[in-house]
Design brief:
heterodimer, A: mainly alpha, Alpha-Beta Plaits, B: 71% helix, binds iron/sulfur cluster
Protein backbone atom coordinates (compact mmCIF):
# COMPACT_ATOMS: atom_id res chain seq x y z
CA UNK A 1 0.00 0.00 0.00
CA UNK A 2 2.60 2.46 1.12
CA UNK A 3 4.78 1.33 -1.71
CA UNK A 4 2.26 2.33 -4.34
CA UNK A 5 1.75 5.63 -2.54
CA UNK A 6 5.46 6.26 -2.59
CA UNK A 7 5.57 5.37 -6.24
CA UNK A 8 2.80 7.74 -7.21
CA UNK A 9 4.44 10.46 -5.14
CA UNK A 10 7.70 9.88 -6.94
CA UNK A 11 5.91 9.99 -10.28
CA UNK A 12 4.20 13.22 -9.37
CA UNK A 13 7.52 14.69 -8.37
CA UNK A 14 9.17 13.63 -11.59
CA UNK A 15 6.25 15.04 -13.58
CA UNK A 16 6.79 18.37 -11.90
CA UNK A 17 10.50 18.28 -12.64
CA UNK A 18 9.84 17.41 -16.27
CA UNK A 19 7.48 20.33 -16.53
CA UNK A 20 10.16 22.60 -15.19
CA UNK A 21 13.01 21.44 -17.38
CA UNK A 22 11.01 20.81 -20.47
CA UNK A 23 9.65 17.54 -21.70
CA UNK A 24 11.65 15.46 -24.20
CA UNK A 25 10.08 14.28 -27.43
CA UNK A 26 7.88 11.26 -27.00
CA UNK A 27 9.60 8.05 -27.92
CA UNK A 28 7.71 7.44 -31.18
CA UNK A 29 8.62 10.88 -32.40
CA UNK A 30 12.25 10.35 -31.53
CA UNK A 31 12.24 7.10 -33.46
CA UNK A 32 10.84 8.74 -36.52
CA UNK A 33 13.28 11.59 -36.25
CA UNK A 34 16.18 9.21 -35.92
CA UNK A 35 15.18 7.05 -38.82
CA UNK A 36 14.99 10.03 -41.08
CA UNK A 37 18.04 11.85 -39.76
CA UNK A 38 19.97 12.49 -42.98
CA UNK A 39 23.52 12.68 -41.63
CA UNK A 40 25.11 11.03 -38.70
CA UNK A 41 27.53 13.37 -37.01
CA UNK A 42 31.12 12.64 -36.04
CA UNK A 43 30.02 12.42 -32.43
CA UNK A 44 27.56 9.76 -33.42
CA UNK A 45 30.22 7.59 -34.99
CA UNK A 46 32.74 8.09 -32.20
CA UNK A 47 30.20 7.10 -29.62
CA UNK A 48 28.93 4.29 -31.76
CA UNK A 49 32.43 2.87 -32.05
CA UNK A 50 32.82 2.92 -28.30
CA UNK A 51 29.47 1.32 -27.77
CA UNK A 52 29.97 -1.39 -30.32
CA UNK A 53 33.20 -2.39 -28.71
CA UNK A 54 31.42 -1.86 -25.43
CA UNK A 55 34.79 -1.69 -24.04
CA UNK A 56 35.47 1.75 -22.79
CA UNK A 57 36.55 0.28 -19.52
CA UNK A 58 38.63 -2.41 -21.11
CA UNK A 59 40.29 0.00 -23.51
CA UNK A 60 40.96 2.37 -20.66
CA UNK A 61 42.42 -0.41 -18.57
CA UNK A 62 44.78 -1.40 -21.37
CA UNK A 63 45.86 2.20 -21.95
CA UNK A 64 46.38 2.74 -18.23
CA UNK A 65 48.30 -0.48 -17.81
CA UNK A 66 50.62 0.33 -20.71
CA UNK A 67 51.24 3.81 -19.38
CA UNK A 68 51.88 2.42 -15.93
CA UNK A 69 54.42 -0.10 -17.18
CA UNK A 70 56.25 2.44 -19.30
CA UNK A 71 56.37 5.01 -16.51
CA UNK A 72 57.30 2.54 -13.81
CA UNK A 73 60.09 1.24 -15.97
CA UNK A 74 61.13 4.78 -16.73
CA UNK A 75 61.45 5.41 -13.00
CA UNK A 76 63.84 2.47 -12.79
CA UNK A 77 65.84 3.72 -15.76
CA UNK A 78 66.17 7.06 -14.03
CA UNK A 79 67.18 5.52 -10.73
CA UNK A 80 69.79 3.29 -12.30
CA UNK A 81 70.99 5.81 -14.81
CA UNK A 82 70.85 3.19 -17.54
CA UNK A 83 68.33 0.93 -19.17
CA UNK A 84 68.68 -2.54 -17.65
CA UNK A 85 66.62 -4.16 -20.38
CA UNK A 86 68.47 -2.80 -23.33
CA UNK A 87 69.64 -5.62 -25.51
CA UNK A 88 66.67 -7.74 -24.46
CA UNK A 89 63.38 -8.04 -26.24
CA UNK A 90 61.85 -5.38 -24.06
CA UNK A 91 64.86 -3.16 -24.17
CA UNK A 92 64.84 0.38 -25.27
CA UNK A 93 61.33 1.47 -24.43
CA UNK A 94 63.04 4.53 -23.08
CA UNK A 95 62.45 6.25 -26.39
CA UNK A 96 58.87 6.74 -25.25
CA UNK A 97 60.04 8.86 -22.39
CA UNK A 98 60.82 12.15 -24.09
CA UNK A 99 57.15 13.00 -23.88
CA UNK A 100 57.55 13.38 -20.13
CA UNK A 101 58.43 17.01 -20.20
CA UNK A 102 55.08 17.69 -21.68
CA UNK A 103 52.79 15.57 -19.59
CA UNK A 104 51.60 16.41 -16.12
CA UNK A 105 52.95 13.55 -14.08
CA UNK A 106 51.94 13.78 -10.47
CA UNK A 107 55.32 12.71 -9.21
CA UNK A 108 58.54 14.62 -8.97
CA UNK A 109 61.81 13.43 -10.22
CA UNK A 110 64.67 14.75 -8.20
CA UNK A 111 64.88 18.41 -8.89
CA UNK A 112 68.18 19.82 -9.85
CA UNK A 113 68.87 16.88 -12.05
CA UNK A 114 68.21 17.60 -15.65
CA UNK A 115 65.30 15.17 -15.50
CA UNK A 116 63.83 17.01 -12.59
CA UNK A 117 63.06 19.96 -14.74
CA UNK A 118 61.49 17.90 -17.41
CA UNK A 119 59.40 15.37 -15.65
CA UNK A 120 56.04 16.99 -15.74
CA UNK A 121 54.89 20.50 -15.83
CA UNK A 122 53.79 20.98 -12.26
CA UNK A 123 57.31 20.11 -11.21
CA UNK A 124 58.72 22.37 -13.88
CA UNK A 125 56.62 25.21 -12.53
CA UNK A 126 57.83 24.55 -9.00
CA UNK A 127 61.45 24.09 -9.82
CA UNK A 128 61.92 26.86 -12.34
CA UNK A 129 59.63 29.22 -10.49
CA UNK A 130 61.54 29.02 -7.24
CA UNK A 131 64.69 29.89 -9.13
CA UNK A 132 63.14 33.07 -10.34
CA UNK A 133 62.60 31.88 -13.90
CA UNK A 134 59.10 32.15 -15.27
CA UNK A 135 58.31 28.70 -16.70
CA UNK A 136 56.73 29.76 -19.99
CA UNK A 137 56.72 26.32 -21.56
CA UNK A 138 55.21 24.64 -18.53
CA UNK A 139 52.57 27.31 -18.20
CA UNK A 140 51.86 27.11 -21.92
CA UNK A 141 51.39 23.37 -21.71
CA UNK A 142 49.12 23.57 -18.68
CA UNK A 143 46.94 26.06 -20.52
CA UNK A 144 46.83 24.26 -23.85
CA UNK A 145 46.56 20.57 -22.99
CA UNK A 146 43.58 20.62 -20.60
CA UNK A 147 41.72 22.96 -22.94
CA UNK A 148 42.13 20.49 -25.77
CA UNK A 149 41.54 17.22 -23.93
CA UNK A 150 40.40 18.15 -20.44
CA UNK A 151 41.68 16.02 -17.63
CA UNK A 152 41.71 12.87 -19.69
CA UNK A 153 45.33 12.44 -18.60
CA UNK A 154 43.97 11.65 -15.14
CA UNK A 155 41.52 9.10 -16.38
CA UNK A 156 43.68 7.41 -18.96
CA UNK A 157 47.40 7.86 -18.36
CA UNK A 158 48.27 8.83 -14.81
CA UNK A 159 50.01 5.86 -13.22
CA UNK A 160 49.06 6.83 -9.70
CA UNK A 161 45.43 7.13 -10.76
CA UNK A 162 45.78 3.62 -12.17
CA UNK A 163 47.21 2.32 -8.91
CA UNK A 164 44.19 3.72 -7.10
CA UNK A 165 41.86 2.19 -9.69
CA UNK A 166 43.49 -1.19 -9.07
CA UNK A 167 43.00 -0.86 -5.33
CA UNK A 168 39.38 0.04 -5.94
CA UNK A 169 38.84 -3.31 -7.69
CA UNK A 170 38.79 -5.05 -4.32
CA UNK A 171 35.27 -6.14 -3.47
CA UNK A 172 35.01 -3.81 -0.53
CA UNK A 173 31.96 -1.59 -0.39
CA UNK A 174 32.90 1.94 -1.24
CA UNK A 175 31.98 4.63 1.21
CA UNK A 176 32.13 8.35 0.85
CA UNK A 177 31.70 11.25 3.18
CA UNK A 178 28.44 13.17 3.01
CA UNK A 179 28.01 15.52 0.06
CA UNK A 180 28.83 18.52 2.16
CA UNK A 181 32.04 17.03 3.51
CA UNK A 182 32.94 15.67 0.11
CA UNK A 183 32.78 19.19 -1.28
CA UNK A 184 34.82 20.56 1.59
CA UNK A 185 37.47 17.89 1.35
CA UNK A 186 37.71 18.40 -2.40
CA UNK A 187 38.86 21.94 -1.80
CA UNK A 188 41.95 20.65 0.05
CA UNK A 189 43.71 20.07 -3.25
CA UNK A 190 43.16 23.66 -4.31
CA UNK A 191 44.52 24.87 -0.99
CA UNK A 192 47.62 22.72 -1.46
CA UNK A 193 48.00 23.98 -5.01
CA UNK A 194 47.74 27.62 -4.01
CA UNK A 195 50.07 27.26 -1.05
CA UNK A 196 52.68 25.60 -3.27
CA UNK A 197 52.25 28.19 -6.02
CA UNK A 198 52.41 31.01 -3.50
CA UNK A 199 55.64 29.69 -1.97
CA UNK A 200 57.10 29.25 -5.45
CA UNK A 201 56.13 32.77 -6.51
CA UNK A 202 57.40 34.27 -3.26
CA UNK A 203 60.72 32.52 -3.44
CA UNK A 204 60.99 33.14 -7.16
CA UNK A 205 60.49 36.85 -6.66
CA UNK A 206 63.32 37.06 -4.12
CA UNK A 207 65.64 35.04 -6.29
CA UNK A 208 64.75 37.13 -9.32
CA UNK A 209 65.35 40.36 -7.41
CA UNK A 210 68.72 38.96 -6.35
CA UNK A 211 69.59 37.97 -9.88
CA UNK A 212 68.88 41.41 -11.30
CA UNK A 213 70.75 43.05 -8.44
CA UNK A 214 67.88 44.81 -6.70
CA UNK A 215 68.79 42.98 -3.52
CA UNK A 216 72.06 41.37 -2.54
CA UNK A 217 72.33 38.20 -4.69
CA UNK A 218 74.18 36.26 -1.98
CA UNK A 219 71.48 37.04 0.54
CA UNK A 220 68.80 36.08 -1.96
CA UNK A 221 70.52 32.77 -2.68
CA UNK A 222 71.02 32.03 1.02
CA UNK A 223 67.39 32.80 1.63
CA UNK A 224 66.31 30.46 -1.12
CA UNK A 225 68.57 27.71 0.19
CA UNK A 226 67.26 28.22 3.74
CA UNK A 227 63.64 28.02 2.66
CA UNK A 228 64.02 25.05 0.35
CA UNK A 229 66.34 22.96 2.51
CA UNK A 230 63.65 21.49 4.78
CA UNK A 231 61.87 20.31 1.66
CA UNK A 232 62.94 17.48 -0.58
CA UNK A 233 63.72 19.70 -3.53
CA UNK A 234 60.39 21.14 -4.50
CA UNK A 235 57.73 21.82 -1.94
CA UNK A 236 55.27 19.16 -2.93
CA UNK A 237 57.96 16.55 -3.49
CA UNK A 238 58.46 16.49 0.26
CA UNK A 239 55.35 14.45 0.90
CA UNK A 240 54.09 13.45 -2.54
CA UNK A 241 52.95 9.81 -2.20
CA UNK A 242 53.14 9.33 -5.93
CA UNK A 243 56.81 10.30 -5.90
CA UNK A 244 57.44 7.84 -3.09
CA UNK A 245 55.77 5.09 -5.04
CA UNK A 246 57.43 5.68 -8.39
CA UNK A 247 60.82 7.07 -7.51
CA UNK A 248 61.88 6.70 -3.90
CA UNK A 249 60.78 3.13 -3.30
CA UNK A 250 62.40 1.80 -6.47
CA UNK A 251 65.49 3.76 -5.45
CA UNK A 252 65.60 2.25 -1.98
CA UNK A 253 64.76 -1.17 -3.33
CA UNK A 254 67.56 -0.96 -5.84
CA UNK A 255 69.67 -0.06 -2.86
CA UNK A 256 70.60 3.37 -4.02
CA UNK A 257 72.68 2.36 -6.97
CA UNK A 258 74.83 5.40 -7.40
CA UNK A 259 73.17 7.57 -9.95
CA UNK A 260 74.08 11.15 -10.69
CA UNK A 261 70.41 11.65 -11.41
CA UNK A 262 69.39 11.27 -7.80
CA UNK A 263 72.15 13.18 -6.12
CA UNK A 264 70.10 16.35 -6.12
CA UNK A 265 67.71 15.05 -3.49
CA UNK A 266 68.30 16.18 0.02
CA UNK A 267 69.76 13.08 1.68
CA UNK A 268 67.08 12.56 4.37
CA UNK A 269 64.50 12.20 1.68
CA UNK A 270 66.09 9.26 -0.06
CA UNK A 271 67.26 7.33 2.99
CA UNK A 272 65.36 5.37 5.57
CA UNK A 273 64.73 7.80 8.34
CA UNK A 274 62.10 9.91 9.97
CA UNK A 275 61.11 11.96 6.88
CA UNK A 276 60.92 8.77 4.86
CA UNK A 277 58.65 7.12 7.41
CA UNK A 278 56.28 10.07 7.27
CA UNK A 279 56.19 9.97 3.50
CA UNK A 280 55.72 6.23 3.46
CA UNK A 281 53.00 6.53 6.10
CA UNK A 282 51.18 9.04 3.95
CA UNK A 283 51.45 6.77 0.92
CA UNK A 284 50.08 3.84 2.92
CA UNK A 285 47.18 5.91 4.22
CA UNK A 286 46.29 6.94 0.67
CA UNK A 287 46.49 3.37 -0.59
CA UNK A 288 44.36 2.12 2.30
CA UNK A 289 41.81 4.81 1.56
CA UNK A 290 41.83 3.67 -2.06
CA UNK A 291 40.40 0.35 -0.87
CA UNK A 292 37.36 2.09 0.54
CA UNK A 293 36.71 4.81 -1.98
CA UNK A 294 37.57 5.47 -5.59
CA UNK A 295 40.48 7.80 -6.26
CA UNK A 296 40.91 9.39 -2.84
CA UNK A 297 44.16 11.08 -3.82
CA UNK A 298 42.69 12.54 -7.00
CA UNK A 299 39.54 13.69 -5.23
CA UNK A 300 41.06 15.42 -2.28
CA UNK A 301 44.78 15.95 -2.55
CA UNK A 302 46.52 15.94 -5.92
CA UNK A 303 47.60 19.49 -6.79
CA UNK A 304 48.54 18.46 -10.32
CA UNK A 305 44.97 17.33 -10.89
CA UNK A 306 43.67 20.51 -9.28
CA UNK A 307 45.75 22.61 -11.65
CA UNK A 308 44.51 20.68 -14.65
CA UNK A 309 40.94 20.87 -13.38
CA UNK A 310 41.03 24.64 -13.09
CA UNK A 311 41.80 24.90 -16.79
CA UNK A 312 40.06 21.69 -17.80
CA UNK A 313 36.61 22.91 -16.81
CA UNK A 314 36.71 24.94 -20.03
CA UNK A 315 37.78 21.92 -22.06
CA UNK A 316 36.49 21.28 -25.56
CA UNK A 317 36.37 17.58 -24.77
CA UNK A 318 33.52 16.73 -22.44
CA UNK A 319 30.93 14.15 -21.66
CA UNK A 320 27.45 15.36 -22.38
CA UNK A 321 24.01 14.25 -21.23
CA UNK A 322 21.37 14.31 -23.89
CA UNK A 323 18.05 15.97 -23.09
CA UNK A 324 16.16 13.74 -25.46
CA UNK A 325 17.61 10.40 -24.41
CA UNK A 326 17.95 10.85 -20.69
CA UNK A 327 15.01 9.62 -18.68
CA UNK A 328 15.88 12.06 -15.94
CA UNK A 329 14.22 11.52 -12.61
CA UNK A 330 12.21 8.63 -14.02
CA UNK A 331 15.31 6.62 -14.84
CA UNK A 332 15.06 3.20 -13.27
CA UNK A 333 18.80 2.78 -12.90
CA UNK A 334 20.73 6.03 -12.84
CA UNK A 335 24.04 4.28 -13.18
CA UNK A 336 25.84 7.27 -14.63
CA UNK A 337 25.79 8.83 -11.21
CA UNK A 338 26.94 5.73 -9.40
CA UNK A 339 29.69 5.10 -11.94
CA UNK A 340 31.61 8.31 -11.47
CA UNK A 341 34.88 7.66 -9.63
CA UNK A 342 35.25 11.27 -8.60
CA UNK A 343 31.74 11.64 -7.31
CA UNK A 344 30.13 13.84 -9.95
CA UNK A 345 26.38 13.57 -9.88
CA UNK A 346 25.93 13.44 -13.64
CA UNK A 347 22.14 13.59 -13.29
CA UNK A 348 22.22 16.73 -11.24
CA UNK A 349 24.09 18.56 -13.98
CA UNK A 350 22.16 20.49 -16.60
CA UNK A 351 21.71 18.78 -19.96
CA UNK A 352 24.51 19.23 -22.43
CA UNK A 353 28.26 19.15 -21.88
CA UNK A 354 29.35 18.60 -18.30
CA UNK A 355 31.92 21.21 -17.44
CA UNK A 356 33.30 20.15 -14.12
CA UNK A 357 36.80 20.64 -12.83
CA UNK A 358 36.63 17.21 -11.21
CA UNK A 359 35.73 15.26 -14.35
CA UNK A 360 38.64 13.05 -15.35
CA UNK A 361 36.98 11.96 -18.61
CA UNK A 362 37.19 8.32 -17.66
CA UNK A 363 33.95 7.81 -19.64
CA UNK A 364 32.60 5.39 -17.05
CA UNK A 365 29.34 7.30 -17.10
CA UNK A 366 29.17 6.90 -20.89
CA UNK A 367 29.74 3.18 -20.55
CA UNK A 368 27.29 2.70 -17.73
CA UNK A 369 24.30 4.65 -19.02
CA UNK A 370 21.90 2.06 -20.33
CA UNK A 371 19.84 4.60 -22.25
CA UNK A 372 22.39 6.00 -24.66
CA UNK A 373 22.14 9.34 -23.03
CA UNK A 374 25.66 10.19 -21.92
CA UNK A 375 28.05 10.77 -24.82
CA UNK A 376 31.45 12.13 -25.62
CA UNK A 377 31.38 15.56 -27.15
CA UNK A 378 33.99 17.82 -28.67
CA UNK A 379 33.52 21.47 -29.32
CA UNK B 1 30.83 34.87 -20.40
CA UNK B 2 30.64 32.19 -22.99
CA UNK B 3 32.68 29.17 -22.02
CA UNK B 4 33.94 28.65 -25.51
CA UNK B 5 35.23 32.22 -25.66
CA UNK B 6 37.10 31.69 -22.40
CA UNK B 7 38.46 28.40 -23.69
CA UNK B 8 39.73 30.00 -26.88
CA UNK B 9 41.25 32.88 -24.94
CA UNK B 10 43.07 30.45 -22.61
CA UNK B 11 44.21 28.46 -25.60
CA UNK B 12 45.65 31.56 -27.27
CA UNK B 13 47.44 32.66 -24.10
CA UNK B 14 48.82 29.17 -23.70
CA UNK B 15 50.06 29.00 -27.27
CA UNK B 16 51.62 32.44 -26.89
CA UNK B 17 53.38 31.33 -23.71
CA UNK B 18 54.64 28.22 -25.48
CA UNK B 19 55.86 30.21 -28.45
CA UNK B 20 57.55 32.74 -26.22
CA UNK B 21 59.11 30.01 -24.08
CA UNK B 22 60.52 28.35 -27.16
CA UNK B 23 61.72 31.65 -28.62
CA UNK B 24 63.75 32.38 -25.49
CA UNK B 25 65.05 28.84 -25.49
CA UNK B 26 63.32 27.35 -22.47
CA UNK B 27 62.78 24.13 -24.33
CA UNK B 28 66.51 23.67 -23.96
CA UNK B 29 65.78 22.57 -20.41
CA UNK B 30 63.78 19.68 -21.72
CA UNK B 31 66.41 19.05 -24.32
CA UNK B 32 69.20 19.00 -21.78
CA UNK B 33 67.15 16.55 -19.83
CA UNK B 34 66.82 14.38 -22.90
CA UNK B 35 70.55 14.69 -23.30
CA UNK B 36 71.17 13.15 -19.89
CA UNK B 37 68.69 10.50 -20.70
CA UNK B 38 70.27 9.66 -23.99
CA UNK B 39 73.61 9.49 -22.17
CA UNK B 40 72.16 6.49 -20.42
CA UNK B 41 71.96 4.87 -23.82
CA UNK B 42 75.20 6.25 -25.13
CA UNK B 43 77.29 3.10 -24.64
CA UNK B 44 74.90 1.20 -26.85
CA UNK B 45 74.96 3.48 -29.84
CA UNK B 46 77.77 4.59 -32.10
CA UNK B 47 78.91 8.06 -31.15
CA UNK B 48 79.28 10.82 -33.71
CA UNK B 49 82.94 11.65 -34.25
CA UNK B 50 83.66 15.14 -32.95
CA UNK B 51 84.98 17.47 -35.65
S1 LIG C 1 44.44 13.85 -9.94
FE1 LIG C 1 46.66 13.60 -9.77
S2 LIG C 1 47.01 11.49 -9.11
FE2 LIG C 1 44.89 11.67 -9.82
S3 LIG C 1 44.97 11.02 -11.94
FE3 LIG C 1 45.16 13.26 -11.94
S4 LIG C 1 47.38 13.68 -11.88
FE4 LIG C 1 47.05 11.52 -11.33
S1 LIG D 1 31.51 12.62 -15.11
FE1 LIG D 1 31.73 10.71 -16.29
S2 LIG D 1 33.63 10.96 -17.47
FE2 LIG D 1 33.63 12.52 -15.84
S3 LIG D 1 34.75 11.57 -14.16
FE3 LIG D 1 32.60 11.16 -13.79
S4 LIG D 1 32.21 9.15 -14.75
FE4 LIG D 1 34.18 9.90 -15.55
Amino acid sequence: MSETEDKSKAEEKSERIWDKIGRPFPKWKRQILERTRPHKTLHYWVNKAFEELLAIRIIRFIVQLSAFLVLFYAGIVFVLGYDPLIGTVLGGIGWLIPIFGYIPLPFDMPQGSAQGTGIGYFDMIQFMGQQGIFPYIAVGVILVVPILVGRSFCGWICPFGFVQDLFALTPIRKRYPSKKWDERLKSIKYVILFVVLFLVAWLGTWTFLGAIGVINPVLAENFRAAVTTPFATAFWATINPSGVFFVILPYLYLNGVVSPILTAWNPPFIAWGFPMYIRLGFLIVILLMALFMMRPYCRYICPTGALMGLVGQFSFLTVSRSATECLGPTCDSPRCKQACPVGIDVMAKPFGPIHDSECILCLDCVAKCGHDSVKVEYG
Amino acid sequence: MNRRAIAIAILCIGLAALAFGISIGQHEIVRSWLQVFSDAYAPFFPQPIPP
